[in-house]
Amino acid sequence: MKPLWMLVAAAFVVGGCATRQVNLPITQVRTDEGYRLTTRTAKRPQDNDKDTLVVLTFSGGGTRAAAFAYGVLEVLRKTEVTLKNGRRARLIDSIDVITGVSGGSFTALAYGLHGNKLFDDYEQRFLKRNVQGELLSRLLTPTNWPALSSDTWGRSEMAAQLYDEILFDGATFVDLEKGSGPLVMVQTTDISTGSRFAFSQASFDLICSDLSKVRVARAAAASSAVPVVLSPITLNNYGGTCNYKYPDWIMMASDPDNPARPAARAIKRMDETLAFQDGKNRPFLHLVDGGLADNLGMRAVLETLEEMEAVRLRGGKTPLDNVRRIIVIVVNSLSVPSTNWDKSERPPGNLEILIKATGVPIDRYSYETVELLRDIMARWEIMRRIRDSKAFDKSRDPLLAELVNAPTAKLYAIDVSFGALKDPAEFAYLNELPTTFSLTGEQVDRLRASAGKILLDSPDFQQLLKDVGATIVPN
């Protein structure tokens, strides 16, 4: 297994420039077209439960994250639920949205593109393949050096080419759009501002660009473009040329002159998206690893929930008001390998400190994100119980009556992470796995098995199964 430092060293030797991606402009935003949630909903199976929204978030972490996410999909594939019409369906077919970051983006995109075929060959095509070794080999091949040193073909372009060959088969987002699978939103980070940017038509509307012809492999390359090791993916920004307008309900939640709680993050997000729309002064976006802005792929979910709550408290309506049940499964392969630094008088080296210094803030941020989701779940549950109480009288307490206008959906927050493992030895084993795109077959299999066990043992998941009348189908 080639360690990360070898890729870092090779990157400095070659010194390639940022990848140049030419994405095409649009002259008018069409919210009824393109790869976005509303168009995906229209293509979902007609007998799916429209009262339930199922969201999966796949964290970053190289092959460790990709395999862990795959293990969750395997369990959902075996979980059957009873629909309103009495028909049985697999829970995996009820997934509406998957967000993916870095390593998790590969599993998300591969499932969105290949559907059930993913389970036939994903292990051989990607999970149990030495992808990092193949990248390093191409990086150190002298015939590639002229292209790598050019202004139009950098290290991430080379990586995208490999991803196309081994996994995505040259597919573009129009291929994802043609299918009937969930919306897959791959998250990246705009290195200039630190803002997240998703590969969905809703985000591309901000920069007045067409997502449909963008290759899926480029999205994966951007989401996993670790700074220094890989070059940024660059997009043309045509923002300000297509008459983009925010939806009315978003404006209600995000009005900076009359802010609604709890929508502070939504207001901050609007400031960030305004910067994306300034194509005249920011004609290019340089995108890197999505983990720098959101290693769980959870920020968009949190902001949407908070916007829903803020709008409802103001008496407004949102597109999700008819949803009775929102299920969020957070698949987090965060690992915090132990060190022996505290036992030595000699301090760690510069590269070790650099890797640790970039990882620790991301780890802390990921923990806070999950806790915020649980806070929202608890708040909504309290409001729902008050609203449904026979003793509740709106006329006697107008303030409380306003508060219980919050969303009526029951929120399930299911955390699938290493910390939930009851076996200390298995936790220690998985926690020491590196963030790399090269793991052994045994490591991949143990990640898959652990993800499935954590999900099945989760009290929140068990409660969900009970509430929806689900059963696990034996192998």
Shape: globular
Average pLDDT works out at 83
Oligomer: single chain
Indicate the proportion of strand residues. Answer: 5-15%
Report helical residue fraction: 40-55%
Quick rundown:
With 475 residues, this protein is an alpha/beta fold. The protein has helices at 4-14, 37-43, 62-78, 103-114, 118-127, 131-139, 145-148, 155-168, 173-178, 201-206, 216-223, 248-254, 264-276, 291-294, 299-313, 350-388, 398-403, 424-431, 441-457, 459-468; strands spanning 19-20, 52-58, 79-82, 88-90, 97-101, 183-190, 196-198, 233-236, 284-289, 325-332, 410-417, 471-472. Helix 3 packs across helix 4, helix 3 (62-78) runs antiparallel to helix 5 (118-127) and helix 6 (131-139) crosses helix 8.
Features:
single chain; 475 residues; alpha/beta; 3-stranded antiparallel sheet; 12 strands; 47% helix; globular; disordered N terminus
Describe this structure in words.
The chain is an alpha/beta fold and 475 residues long. The protein has 20 helices and twelve strands. It has helices at residues 4-14, 37-43, 62-78, 103-114, 118-127, 131-139, 145-148, 155-168, 173-178, 201-206, 216-223, 248-254, 264-276, 291-294, 299-313, 350-388, 398-403, 424-431, 441-457, 459-468, and strands at 19-20, 52-58, 79-82, 88-90, 97-101, 183-190, 196-198, 233-236, 284-289, 325-332, 410-417, 471-472. The strands form two sheets. Strands 1, 2, 5, 6, 7, 8, 9, 10 and 11 form a nine-stranded mixed β-sheet that branches. Strands 4-3-12 form a three-stranded antiparallel β-sheet. Strand 6 and strand 7 form a beta hairpin. The longest helix is centred in the last third of the chain and has 39 residues, at 350-388. It is globular. The relative contact order is 0.16.
